[in-house]
Design goal:
Shape of chain B: rod-shaped
Number of strands of chain A: 14
Strand order of the largest sheet of chain B: 2-4-5-7-6
Distance between the termini of chain A: 55 Å
Shape of chain A: globular
Largest sheet of chain B: 5 strands, mixed
Helix content of chain B: 55-70%
Number of strands of chain B: 12
Largest interface: A-B, 32 and 23 residues
Radius of gyration of chain A: 20 Å
Number of helices of chain B: 16
Order of helices and strands of chain B: HHHHHHEHEEHEEHEEHEHEHEHEHHEH
Strand content of chain B: 5-15%
Structural class of chain B: alpha/beta
Largest sheet of chain A: 7 strands, mixed
Order of helices and strands of chain A: HEHEHEHEEHEHEHEHEEHHHEEEE
Strand order of the largest sheet of chain A: 7-6-8-9-10-13-14
Oligomer: heterodimer
Distance between the termini of chain B: 125 Å
Number of helices of chain A: 11
Chain lengths: 371, 651
């Protein structure tokens, strides 16, 4: 019966809704929605499974509504999803969305409807002003741009730099801070170009590669998701064999890359030290791999922790959306939530403290990069 | 009622607050709309200007390649992007939000296209670069058109919102009208409720209070459903109950006071009547005394004349029989009338005596005989002379005369010819007196003895006569009743306990011995006659001389004293009431002191036997008094007795 309902719902709206438990009472259902790509939703599922396996919350099991939001989806779809979830009064909070533009667009719906939103990896600077119901587990991209610039400026000899950025709420601010920081540091930015994701990138890819190759950079900073990078990585590797790629955090989500080996040797920015010697993290990473066949991503780990934060709120008595918001406001650096990805806390704007590290792809594995 | 009023006030207040809040909210929304309209328009202008600038910069970059144009392109792009993201935090509809995202994507496309053109240009592929610029211009134009559509959409949304506000305002006005109407209806219902549960009960309280104030102490208020009114009703009823009790007590006391006042007025009137009667009696006594002197003169003279003529010629004897004898009879009748008057008007001693009923009734009848005769009515006495009652004689006579007067008045005004006075001894040793007339009878026999009840014309009766009669009879243990006779007539019946008779002979009767039955063997005596009436002095002188005595006359007491001081006498005959400082009693007191040998030989003559009786002298000299007008025989008898006393004393 559970399986039939699940499949029916899947066919109807292409939105995966998974009921982890159906024992919740109708009067105060403990329901959380998670909106994201496959990796993040798996992290949420693992979190809910762990909570319910431990007896649930006060004897009641947690129910998770999973909304699959493909990475290629546009903010328009995110708004529609947010409208639907906000209308469902049984949902206490939403964990998501995936991209910064989608998350920003959805945040205005959630704030208008009073739904707590915890974005695991929304890093767009505008999200700081999204509203009182919006929280995130990562810092603003302004910090990431500075972090990347600091790394580049520390390299010797100084590399010739090309900046390729997705022309959206994520790429533009990172590029702006990065470029400004590099210019201040007298770095040599030999090439810059925005790009558009999805279909528009394909016809642009050749011109982009020619441009990059023509500039001859030593370091290509890729501010965007891995899908577009994978389209040009092989040509770049052949045309510019000595050039190294440094991808921002979005690149880390490389699940689905046809040949991960192409990015071996590249550096990626990560929010989570997935190689840290932590038992809980390793256990989740192990279960994640066994579940998906892939390595645990920082987004999946952050999503796991986001579910944990909401569950902690429910345990603390936050059974309504407003109560949940107030609970989240009380999670500060003085009393952080201890997640598998590290301590979770929010400032007065709902932002997390900046926490970055560089990882290196070695034999399709992520390793912490030590310069 | 109180909760209803509070409810109406609360509803009214809530609606007013709601109305104000809605209007305030709409005003604020309108202000926000106006501000956001300006702001969004400015933003749109900025976007349009920036995008146009980017298109222009793109052209220039193609024509004049250089870093400045790209830098300007980036700067304008950042400006356009930042302005586009300003829309992100605006309050807008889902459609508008989707439109914003479309704009953002269009702008991304413009910028990417521009960079692609720049790259082609740098590589010298001018043709493709121009194509990209053309595409850029098309995308830019599309984006600007999209900006216009977005602005129009926002305008439409504002218009819809304003229309919604207008509709809401109209509904609010309608609602307020409906609420106003509802409040009026509620108010009317409330007024009706108030009228039913407050005003009407208050009116009933007011009406009950008015009735109570008007004297209807039996009025009571019904109980109500409301506790407060029940308390009022209970208090009112309790008050009315207590007022009724108090009024009953006041009425009872008023009745007692009225009775006492009636008794007081009766007593006062009785006192006035007695005072009046006392004054009349005093006047009558004086009058009787004054009458007795001439009557004594007339009677004495006539009897002397009769005696002289009886020894004369036959013609003189015939004349004496025809003229002197009637004269003597009329004088005697007048003397009797005057005597009765004096007896009736004498001062009451307030002493209960054994009274001969016939004598007392005769006194009363004698006083009313002339009035009955004058009006052609008959006063018939059927009273045995051996009936006695224990009573105050004078007031008993008043009772009889009052009843006789009432009967005469009734017969005089409404017919009837006789009053029969009867006295009988009952088997139970009670005496029953009946006064029966053949007049019209009593109008209401049961009220005859009520104070101030009279059927006589105004000014002729006090309404107290029979009341006093009733009181007097009952005070002496008797009963009195009034009834009507068949076919007509009135009857007053008095019953009094009988008293044993007192065997006594009155001084008057004892002295009334016919002169021809008195032996005329008398010693010659020297007698001093003191009288202020010349006629009486003359008659006495004549009679005494005829009896063979020596007579000296004195005009008053002082004259007598001067004579007694120098001359010897065997007896003194003196009038009692005389002018001057000394009367007969004072003269006697002088004789007792200065001529004690004559103290036992004094004979008193008085015109007022009542005054004599009340003077206190009776005790010592009661047997030596001769009342005027006296019979010659009585005078001779008393003189003989006096001289015989003197002779026995001398022997």
């Amino acid at each position: 019966m559970f399986t039939q309902a699940f499949l029916k719902h899947l066919k109807k709206s292409a939105i995966v809704s998974v009921s982890i438990a159906s024992a919740c009472g109708p009067a105060s259902p403990l329901r959380i929605a998670v909106v994201g790509t496959g990796g993040s939703t798996v992290g949420a599922e693992l979190a809910v499974a762990d909570i319910n396996a431990a007896g649930g919350i006060a004897g009641r099991l947690l129910e998770l509504e999973i909304v699959n939001e493909p990475s290629e989806s546009v903010p328009l779809e995110a708004i529609r999803i947010a409208e639907r979830l906000a209308a469902d009064q049984t949902i206490l909070a939403v964990v998501g969305h995936g991209g910064s533009s989608r998350s920003l667009a959805a945040s205005q719906v959630y704030n208008a409807r009073g739904v707590p939103q915890i974005a695991p990896n929304t890093s767009a600077p505008l999200f700081t002003d999204a509203g009182p119901f919006s929280f995130r587990l990562v810092a603003s991209d302004e910090y990431q741009g500075a972090f990347v610039a600091a790394h580049i400026l520390s390299l010797t000899p100084a590399p010739r730099i090309a900046i390729i950025y997705v022309n959206d709420d994520y790429g533009r601010p990172v590029r702006r801070v990065l470029r400004d920081s590099l210019l201040i540091g007298n770095a040599s930015v030999v090439y810059e170009s925005p790009f558009q994701e999805r279909g528009a990138f394909t016809e642009f890819a050749d011109d982009l590669v020619q441009g990059i190759v023509g500039a001859g950079p030593d370091l290509l900073v890729w501010v965007g998701r891995p899908d577009e990078l994978s389209q040009i990585r092989r040509r770049l590797k052949s045309e510019l064999p000595n050039a190294r790629v440094l991808g921002t955090d979005a690149v880390g989500r490389f699940r689905g890359l046809p040949k991960p080996a192409l990015i071996d040797g590249d550096l990626l920015v990560s929010y989570v030290d997935l190689a840290a010697d932590r038992a809980d993290l390793k256990l989740v990473a192990q279960r994640f791999r066994s579940r998906t066949g892939n390595v645990l991503t920082d987004v999946a780990a952050l999503t796991y922790d986001a579910i944990g934060v909401v569950a902690a709120g429910i345990r603390a008595g936050a059974n309504t959306r407003v109560a949940m918001r107030k609970y989240l406001e009380r999670i500060t650096t003085t009393d952080p939530y201890q997640g598998i990805a590290g301590p979770v806390s929010f400032d007065e704007n709902g932002d997390a403290r900046p926490r970055y590290l560089l990882v290196e792809v070695v034999n399709s594995q992520l390793r912490r990069f030590h310069q | 009622m109180t909760s209803g009023a509070v409810g109406v006030v609360l509803v009214t207040t809530a609606l007013t607050v709601l109305s104000v809040a809605l209007i305030t909210s709409m005003n604020e929304q309108m202000v926000r709309d106006m501000r956001s309209r300006v702001s969004e328009q400015n933003t749109a202008d900025e976007i349009v200007a920036s995008v146009n600038g980017q298109i222009l910069a793109s052209y220039r970059q193609l024509q004049y390649p250089g870093a400045d144009h790209e830098a300007r392109f980036d700067s304008l792009g950042r400006r356009a992007f930042d302005n586009l993201r300003l829309y992100l935090f605006q309050d807008m509809s889902l459609t508008a939000r989707l439109a914003v995202e479309s704009l953002r994507e269009l702008h991304q496309s413009v910028e990417v296209t521009a960079h692609r053109a720049f790259e082609l240009s740098r590589r010298g592929d001018v043709a493709n670069a121009r194509k990209q610029v053309a595409q850029l211009e098309a995308d830019g134009t599309a984006m600007l058109a999209a900006v216009d559509r977005f602005v129009s959409l926002r305008e439409q949304e504002r218009a819809i919102r304003q229309a919604h506000h207008s509709t809401l305002l109209q509904r609010l006005v309608s609602l307020r009208l409906l609420v106003g109407l509802g409040l009026i209806i509620v108010g009317l219902l409330f007024v009706r409720l108030i009228r039913r549960h407050v005003i009407r009960p208050l009116e009933s309280i007011s009406a009950a209070a008015a009735r109570l104030g008007g004297g209807d102490l039996t009025v009571r208020m019904p109980m109500h459903r409301h506790q407060e009114l029940n308390v009022v009703a209970a208090s009112f009823n309790d008050m009315a109950e207590r007022m009724q009790v108090v009024r009953d007590e006041i009425e009872r006391r008023n009745l007692e006071l009225s009775i006492a006042l009636g008794d007081l007025r009766a007593t006062q009137n009785e006192l006035l009547q007695q005072e009046k009667m006392s004054a009349i009696g005093l006047m009558l006594a004086g009058l009787a005394h004054e009458l007795n002197n001439p009557l004594a003169g007339i009677l004495g003279t006539a009897q002397c004349l009769q005696t002289e003529m009886s020894t004369g010629t036959p013609a003189m004897r015939l004349m004496s029989g025809e003229m002197v004898t009637p004269l003597i009879a009329e004088a005697q009748r007048a003397g009797g009338l005057v005597r009765n008057l004096l007896l009736f008007t004498r001062k009451s001693t307030s002493e209960v005596d054994t009274v001969n009923v016939k004598e007392a009734l005769d006194v009363a009848a004698g006083l009313r005989a002339y009035a009955f005769a004058h009006d052609g009515k008959q006063l018939l006495m059927e009273v045995p002379d051996d009936l006695h009652v224990s009573i105050e004689a004078q007031r008993f006579e008043h009772v009889a005369m009052n009843i006789m007067t009432n009967a005469l008045d009734a017969m005089r005004s409404a017919g009837g010819g006789e009053l029969i006075v009867k006295a009988t001894r009952d088997e139970d040793a009670w005496i029953t007196l009946t006064f029966s007339d053949d007049g019209p009878g009593f109008t209401d026999p049961s009220r005859v003895f009520d104070a101030f009840y009279t059927t006589k014309p105004v000014g002729t009766g006090t309404g107290l006569g029979l009341t006093l009669v009733h009181r007097f009879v009952t005070e002496f243990g008797g009963t009195i009743a009034a009834s009507n006779l068949v076919p007509h007539g009135a009857c007053i019946t008095i019953r009094l306990p009988e008293a044993a008779p007192v065997p006594a002979i009155s001084a008057t009767a004892e002295r009334r011995i016919a002169i021809d039955r008195v032996p005329s063997i008398r010693p010659r005596s020297r007698i001093l006659v003191v009288d202020d009436e010349a006629v009486l002095r003359t008659i006495q002188q004549r009679l005494l001389k005829k009896m063979g005595h020596d007579v000296v006359l004195a005009k008053h007491a002082a004259d007598a004293i001067s004579i007694l001081a120098h001359e010897q006498f065997d007896a003194v005959i003196t009038d009692i009431r005389m002018p001057g400082q000394m009367d007969g009693i004072a003269l006697f007191e002088w004789i007792r002191v200065n001529r004690p040998d004559l103290a036992e030989h004094c004979l008193f003559i008085t015109g007022d036997i009542g005054e004599w009786a009340s003077s206190g002298t009776t005790a010592t000299h009661g047997s030596r008094v001769l009342a005027k007008p006296f019979e010659v025989s009585e005078y001779i008898e008393m003189v003989d007795w006096l001289t015989e006393q003197g002779a026995r004393a001398a022997a």
